């Protein structure tokens, strides 16, 4: 079973001019595709052959197979965490955010601090804990919450390749735009449900 690059849920021009088609061509078309290609080269003839992506991530130790599988999963989740139409949390998710942080503005402040301070390359996640509460979690490199008990609701890719073409080294502005313009709260609500 060969892995394929999942289609984007929108056109590569959907976020112009803030996130350009060129940025998607590199981040999605080259980086994400490279993880798919690498995994397809690593899996044949191993114990991972025939397993789906999540099963590989949960079974593989740190190393090439895990890194490429997790990066495929993380990137696919990230593309779905973006929406070209600004949305806001509502319903049960909004209530859970208020219960944890006191307000959506306080959540944005906490998420921004976490994402901007996530050293090096990695991901910042809004997750649902096993007890139903919410938290903000940073992972490094290919780390992903699905290896534990947290349920990912929304993520931002803070690897430099995610924002460098359009933002250069201004990670704080990228995080701000994510939270105010691009975060797909409908996707997060489905994951929370």
UniProtKB/TrEMBL annotation:
Coiled-coil segments on the chain, per record? none
Q: Which GO terms describe its molecular function?
A: superoxide dismutase activity; transition metal ion binding
EC category = oxidoreductase
InterPro entries linked: Mn/Fe_SOD, Mn/Fe_SOD_BS, Mn/Fe_SOD_C, Mn/Fe_SOD_N, Mn/Fe_SOD_N_sf, SOD_C_sf
Where do the Manganese/iron superoxide dismutase N-terminal domain residues begin and end? 3-83
Catalysed reactions, as listed in the record: 2 superoxide + 2 H(+) = H2O2 + O2
Which keywords belong to this entry? Iron, Metal-binding, Oxidoreductase
Q: Which Pfam families match?
A: Sod_Fe_C (PF02777), Sod_Fe_N (PF00081)
The UniProt entry, under SUPFAM superfamilies, shows: Fe,Mn superoxide dismutase (SOD), C-terminal domain, Fe,Mn superoxide dismutase (SOD), N-terminal domain
Record: residues binding Mn(2+) = 27, 75, 157, 161
* E.C. numbers: 1.15.1.1
Ranges of residues in domain Manganese/iron superoxide dismutase C-terminal: 89-190
**Would you name any one GO CC term?**
cytoplasm
Protein family = Belongs to the iron/manganese superoxide dismutase family.
Its biological function?
Destroys radicals which are normally produced within the cells and which are toxic to biological systems.
Record's protein name: Superoxide dismutase
């Amino acid at each position: 079973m060969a892995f394929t690059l999942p289609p984007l849920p929108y056109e590569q021009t959907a976020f112009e001019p803030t996130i350009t088609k060129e940025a998607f061509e590199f981040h999605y078309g080259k980086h994400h595709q490279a993880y798919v290609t690498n995994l397809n080269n690593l899996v044949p003839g191993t114990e991972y052959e025939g397993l789906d992506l999540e099963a590989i991530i949960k079974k593989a130790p740190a190393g090439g197979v895990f890194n490429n599988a997790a990066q495929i999963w993380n990137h696919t989740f990230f593309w779905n965490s973006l929406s070209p139409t600004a949305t806001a949390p509502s319903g049960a998710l909004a209530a859970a955010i208020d219960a944890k942080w006191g307000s959506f503005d306080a959540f944005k402040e906490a998420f921004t601090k976490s994402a901007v301070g996530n050293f090096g390359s990695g991901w910042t996640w809004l997750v649902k804990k096993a007890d139903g509460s919410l938290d903000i979690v940073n992972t490094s490199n290919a780390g992903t919450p699905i290896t534990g008990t947290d349920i990912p609701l929304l993520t931002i890719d803070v690897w430099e390749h995610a924002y460098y073409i359009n933002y250069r080294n201004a990670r704080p502005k990228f995080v701000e735009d994510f939270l105010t313009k691009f975060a797909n709260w409908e996707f997060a609500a489905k994951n929370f449900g």
